[in-house]
Amino acid sequence: xxxxxxxxxxxxxxxxxxxxxxxxxxxxxxxxxxxxxxxxxxxxxxxxxxxxxxxxxxxxxxxxxxxxxxxxxxxxxxxxxxxxxxxxxxxxxxxxxxxxxxxxxxxxxxxxxxxxxxxxxxxxxxxxxxxxxxxxxxxxxxxxxxxxxxxxxxxxxxxxxxxxxxxxxxxxxxxxxxxxxxxx
Length: 184
What we know:
By secondary structure, the chain is an all-beta fold. It has strands spanning about 1-5, 15, 20-25, 40-45, 50-55, 60-65, 70-75, 80, 90, 95-100, 100-110, 115-120, 125, 130-135, 140-145, 145-150, 155-160, 165-170, 175-180. It contains no helices and 19 strands.
């Protein structure tokens, strides 16, 4: 099992059509986002342009939550609003226009991901899934198998658990949690 702590300030920033993006992790590690050959990607992006169009492509679905604001958007022609830290899921082929500036959390999963759970949690849990994500929404200490890890807002932990060992996680603040398997 590998526990990787990814600090917000260490993540490289690049441009997208509506602002900036920070790619925390992509899997497999040698995958290229532009080639659409990845199983999952964890990122955060600023939405600077209003309105702005979300990137559209085949074979993926996404979980998104605003980190610092609510979001007002049009999803396939329907008006939608989500509050700060409220997750919503959509297909990457959906037509989305955002009318709010802010910073988001973005998890992209290939459609061959199975047994996925993605939610905002504030309680301990245990899983043996091969991929586990913890994205801090505030400052605090997370426990991974009784090992304390101090996180600041928007830091990320990615646990690669291909041996499918039992992993116990303790949380003391709201955290975006995800875990899943890959089926090909």
